[in-house]
Design goal:
This protein is α/β, with parallel strands linked by helices. The protein is built from 14 helices and nine strands. An eight-stranded parallel beta barrel has the order 1-2-4-5-6-7-8-9, surrounded by five helices.
Length: 315
C-alpha cells in the first residue's frame, strides 16, 4: 500500500509536511497548489511553497519523503510552461489540481469547476505530459464532479487519455464539500473504465476506514487529508507500524512542532495555526474539545505554548 499526503491549501505547508512525515507511513507528499493564470512564475514562488527543493538529496522532507509540486489553473500552455520550471528546479513530477472546492478558485475557473469540462482536462493533461520529462510522473487529483457525478467516468477517462500517471479521486463532488459519507464505491466504477492507477481519498480517519475504503474502491493506494491532521501518525497506524498516539504523546508532538512554527516565518500566526489544527484533532480526541474551548481566546504565541505544555504536564 502506498499512502499519499493530500495537498491542503493553507494547512499542510513544509513545516506540517516535515512533522507528519517524521511519524512514518507516508510515501509521498504534494505541495499546496501553485496558482497558474497567464504567466511563467519566477523560481522564488516555487522555493517559497516548496523549500524542500533546496535539499541537497532531492525534493524531499527531512525524513526522506518525496514532495511533488501541485499546479492549479485552466490554461494548458501556461500550466505546461510552469511544469517545466517546477521540474527543472527539482520537483520529482507534477500534480494537477481538479478538486479544489474553494469558491474564489472556482470563480476564476480553477480547481473543481473544470470538472464540467472533460475536454479541458484532456488538453491540460496532454500539454503538461508533453512538456514534462518522460521519466517523471504527471498525476492529477479530481472529485467525483462539480454539482453531481454525471461526468465522473468521463472526467477520469479524459485525464487518463491525456497521459496521467495516476489519478487521486476524492470520493465526493464539489457540492458535497466535506460532508460524510465519501462515495468510495464510485471509485470502483471509475476503475472499470480507465487503465490509469487510481488513489482513493476521502473520510479516512482510522485503519478500519482505510480497509473499508480499499474494499469499496478496489484501490490499494490511498490519500490522507484531514485524517492525518486529526491523528498525526495515521499513516503509520494504518500500516501497522505503530498504535494511535495517546493524548499526551500528541501534545508532546505539538510542542515539538511549535518550536519550528514559532521560529519560522509564520511565527506571528502560530496561535491561529494551532487553533486551526485543533479543529481536526478534536474530531478524534475527546480530550481536545474542552482544551480547544480554553485556547480559543489565546492570541500570543508564548501563551499558547504555555497552555499546551500545562495540558501535557497535567496528563
Amino acid at each position: 500500500m502506498k499512502i499519499v499526503l493530500a495537498p491542503m491549501e493553507g494547512v499542510i505547508d513544509h513545516l506540517m509536511r516535515h512533522m507528519l512525515t517524521t511519524m512514518g507511513g507516508i510515501d509521498l507528499c504534494m505541495t499546496e497548489f501553485v496558482r497558474i493564470v497567464d504567466q511563467k512564475l519566477p523560481d522564488r514562488v516555487y522555493y517559497r511553497l516548496c523549500p524542500e527543493l533546496l535539499n541537497s538529496d532531492g525534493c524531499k522532507t527531512p525524513s526522506g519523503v518525496p514532495v511533488r509540486i501541485q499546479l492549479l489553473g485552466q490554461d494548458p500552455n501556461w500550466l505546461a510552461e510552469n511544469a517545466v520550471v517546477a521540474t527543472s528546479l527539482g520537483s520529482p513530477g507534477i500534480d494537477l489540481n481538479f478538486g479544489c472546492p474553494a469558491k474564489l478558485v472556482n470563480k476564476n475557473k480553477g480547481g473543481a469547476i473544470l470538472l464540467k469540462e472533460p475536454e479541458t482536462l484532456f488538453k491540460i493533461l496532454k500539454a503538461v505530459r508533453a512538456a514534462v520529462p518522460s521519466h517523471l510522473p504527471v498525476t492529477a487529483k479530481m472529485r467525483l464532479g462539480y454539482e453531481d457525478k454525471s461526468l465522473a467516468i468521463e472526467n477520469a477517462q479524459a485525464l487518463s487519455e491525456g497521459g496521467a500517471s495516476e489519478i487521486a479521486i476524492h470520493a465526493r463532488t464539489k457540492s458535497d464539500g466535506y460532508k460524510p459519507p465519501a462515495y468510495w464505491d464510485w471509485i470502483k466504477q471509475i476503475k472499470q473504465h480507465v487503465d490509469t492507477p487510481l488513489i482513493a481519498n476521502g473520510e479516512i480517519w482510522n485503519p478500519d476506514d482505510a480497509a473499508n475504503c480499499q474494499a469499496q474502491s478496489q484501490c490499494e493506494n490511498i490519500m490522507l487529508g484531514r485524517g492525518a491532521l486529526a491523528v498525526p501518525n495515521l499513516a503509520a497506524w494504518i500500516k501497522g507500524l505503530s498504535s494511535k498516539l495517546t493524548w499526551q504523546e500528541l501534545l508532546t508532538l505539538i510542542l515539538e512542532y511549535s518550536k519550528y512554527e514559532i521560529e519560522g516565518d509564520k511565527g506571528l500566526y502560530y496561535s491561529n495555526r494551532v487553533k486551526q489544527w485543533f479543529v481536526y484533532i478534536k474530531q478524534q480526541y475527546p480530550e481536545a474539545e474542552p482544551f480547544f474551548r480554553e485556547i480559543r481566546v489565546i492570541k500570543k504565541a508564548a501563551d499558547m505554548y504555555d497552555a499546551i505544555n500545562r495540558q501535557r504536564l497535567a496528563c
